[in-house]
TrEMBL record:
GO molecular function: DNA-binding transcription factor activity, RNA polymerase II-specific; transcription cis-regulatory region binding; zinc ion binding
Keywords from the UniProt entry: DNA-binding, Metal-binding, Nucleus, Transcription, Transcription regulation
GO biological process, one term: DNA-templated transcription
Chief location bin: nucleus
Protein name stated in the entry: Zn(2)-C6 fungal-type domain-containing protein
Subcellular location(s) of the protein: Nucleus
InterPro entries linked: prtT (IPR051089), XnlR_reg_dom (IPR007219), Zn2-C6_fun-type_DNA-bd_sf (IPR036864), Zn2Cys6_DnaBD (IPR001138)
Residues of the Zn(2)-C6 fungal-type domain: 25-55
Gene Ontology cellular component list: nucleus
Length: 649
């Protein structure tokens, strides 16, 4: 027998007739897991000889060579891709199950509305019975989505329908051409006035649908909240908006439409049960990053159409305004700063083209004012300077306040010179004045808080200016914004700043400050606060139980009860609220009443002021904490004495 035949690395079998000792144990000994003792002369092992079994031994199998590093990497990547595929399928199933729930509820709601005709023979959806379309109870259909998309994107539109991805919100069949058209019109008639980010001529349903599924869904989500007779449809739109955001972040869409959608979602946030669930700050941060990556603060490309060039500039200045507002709320400087181009265009771009919107000048004004006030906490601002002496700090705050006041007046003069439409001026001028007083109060609140922390009596001039600014904010919101119907469609920061102004005044009503304000002024403040609370809980303002005005109203009511406990100002007849009616605004006056003065005498213990917070940053912290603890439960019908049922609103 050759050496090859006796090699233990091959798989040849050895029998009892072979005399050479094989490499390894025989099959029987391996099975019994005992030592295989080979009898060389007889060609068999001891165990097999004893049992009379065939002694067969097989050679060892060849070992496979070790995998290279590249092969291991490829195998790991393949396994990761397979796992991600399975997870995506699982997420898709979960999302479909959740979306199916919202679709079913919205379809049932639409069926119920179609079944209740009015006196004109039309259904609650405004349809004739003969024109009703049967609602399918099946799964969301791509046919409905394609039909709606084809309505807005006809065959001659330069869209590749083979690769066109239709927004999932259209697949349920509940957002047809009529609903989409009505919601877009509602958005630009009501919501866009509070934050004119989009161009109604450019951002038609056709244009937005061809550009961005996220922005298209966001507009439907924001506008559908006003349809209080169809709350389930709004919940469906909100679910689709959340899904579109996930897809945009996952896929890394960096377009101007994505940036605009995220800004809108941060300013018209979805209801959330706690501050942890709020995504407004995250959306704003992503929008800022996209705006920077798209270089919206640079000269627009020359080959773009004129409206799209203006759209880029408008989006940048609105992003600056929104980000600066967030920075003010957190007591830090804005992440965005002016460069040479934006500093030059700030006073030019809103009048550089006949296609400019009449609201563009207000966009530039808000961005400039918000950015200027946020620099209060910047490297060269008063809060970062090493000022020696308490008097120097107060004087610096007063100087900064004067600069803010001068800047507001500067923009008012520019608007008067530029604006040719008196209707728009009558609408926007009071709102600019309101925000001017908010920014003044923000700066003055920092000075008052500094005085309290240093155990100093608040400067009389500082306190007088702060009280005047806070009262003007409430006056403009109650007597103009509410009566004109704008409060209902305001962005969330407006509610927050008005609530901050009210909370500032409530803090002055605490017993420890009773000698600081005259009684007539305290009663007038009490009346204004109660009027604001009544306004914030009225059906003319609140859309649903998740709307922020009702949350802020409950916060103000709790704070007012706490600060005025044991005082008799609530019993004074002149302290009763006096909410004006819609469409009946009173003439706005400037300055406080002649008998409303701040007392100058420090007849109080400054120690008792500890705990009173007057800065907007601390207020945001307190109201966020309160909101997390006091948000209405989903199954609650009464919350802090206010009804929260959709039907009541």
């Amino acid at each position: 027998m050759s050496d090859t035949e006796s090699d233990g690395s091959i798989s040849d079998a050895y029998t009892g007739s072979q005399s050479s000792k094989p490499n390894g144990a025989c099959a029987n000994c391996k099975t019994l897991k005992i030592r295989c003792q080979w009898i060389v002369d007889e060609g068999i092992c001891v165990k097999c000889k004893t049992t009379g079994a065939d002694c067969v031994a097989q050679g060892r199998k060849k070992r496979r060579p070790a995998m290279s590093h590249e092969q291991l990497v490829k195998r790991s990547q393949a396994q990761d891709a397979h796992i991600q595929s399975l997870l995506s399928q699982l997420d898709g199933l979960k999302q479909f199950s959740e979306m199916r729930h919202f679709v079913d509820e919205a379809q049932a709601e639409a069926k119920a509305l179609r079944a209740t005709p009015n006196s004109l023979g039309e259904t609650a959806l405004g349809e004739r019975p003969s024109t009703r379309k049967a609602i399918s109870a099946g799964e969301p259909s791509a046919v409905d989505a394609s039909a709606t998309a084809s309505f807005f994107l006809p065959y001659y539109t330069a869209i590749d329908f083979n690769n066109f991805k239709c927004p999932p919100i259209l697949s349920c069949g509940l957002f047809g051409p009529a609903e989409v058209t009505a919601l877009f019109r509602l958005y630009f008639d009501k919501f866009d006035l509070s934050f004119p980010l989009l161009d109604p001529v450019l951002h038609t349903p056709q244009y937005v649908l061809s550009k961005s599924s996220l922005l298209f869904t966001t507009i439907l989500y924001v506008a559908s909240r006003e349809w209080t007779h169809r709350p389930k449809l709004h919940e469906l739109a909100r679910a689709h908006a959340a899904g579109s955001v996930k897809e945009a972040v996952k896929e890394g869409y960096k377009t101007i439409e994505t940036c605009q959608a995220l800004v809108l979602l941060s300013l018209f946030p979805a209801p959330h049960t706690s501050s942890v669930d709020s995504r407004a700050s995250m959306f704003m941060g992503v929008a800022v990053r996209i705006a920077q990556d798209l270089r919206l603060d640079e000269q627009p490309p020359a080959d773009l159409p004129e409206r799209e060039r203006l759209n880029r500039l408008r989006t940048w200045f609105q992003v600056v305004a929104a980000d600066s507002s967030n920075s003010i709320q957190k007591g830090r400087p804005s992440m965005l700063n002016r460069n040479n181009f934006t500093a030059l265009m700030s006073d030019v771009w809103y009048r550089c083209s006949p296609l400019n919107s009449p609201y563009d000048i207000y966009c530039s004004a808000y961005a400039d004012l918000m950015l200027f006030v946020s620099n209060l906490w910047g490297p060269s601002g008063p809060m970062s300077l090493d000022l020696r002496g308490d008097r120097n700090v107060i004087d610096t705050i007063l100087d900064y306040h004067q600069n803010v006041d001068d800047r507001v007046e500067m923009w008012k003069k520019r608007i008067i010179e530029h604006q040719r439409d008196p209707a728009i001026t009558a609408h926007r001028h009071p709102k600019l004045t309101l925000f001017g007083h908010v920014l003044r109060l923000t700066v003055l609140g920092v000075g008052i808080q500094y005085s309290l922390k240093r155990m100093l009596f608040p400067d009389t001039n500082l306190l007088h200016l702060a009280v005047e600014a806070a009262r003007h904010v409430l006056k403009y919101d109650i007597e103009y914004m509410y009566t004109k119907g704008f409060t209902r469609y305001a962005i969330e920061p407006q509610y927050l700043y008005v609530t901050y102004s009210a909370a500032f005044l409530i803090n002055l009503l605490r017993p420890s400050l009773i000698q600081l304000l005259e009684r007539s002024l305290r009663i007038d403040i009490f009346r204004q606060i109660r009027t604001l609370i009544e306004l914030f809980t009225s059906s003319e303002v609140v859309m649903d139980r998740g709307h922020m005005p009702v949350v802020y109203a409950a916060f103000l009511q709790a704070l007012l009860d706490q600060m005025t406990a044991g005082q008799d100002i609530a019993d004074d007849p002149s302290a009763y609220p006096s909410t004006p009616t819609l469409g009946n605004s009173r003439a706005l006056t400037h300055g406080v009443a002649a008998d409303s003065h701040v007392s100058a005498g420090p007849a109080m213990d400054i120690q008792t002021l500890q705990g009173a917070e007057f800065t907007v940053g601390q207020f945001v912290t307190e109201v966020t904490t309160y909101r997390s603890a006091a948000y209405p439960a989903q199954d609650s019908s009464i919350w802090h004495g206010f009804p929260v049922d959709e039907g009541i609103w």
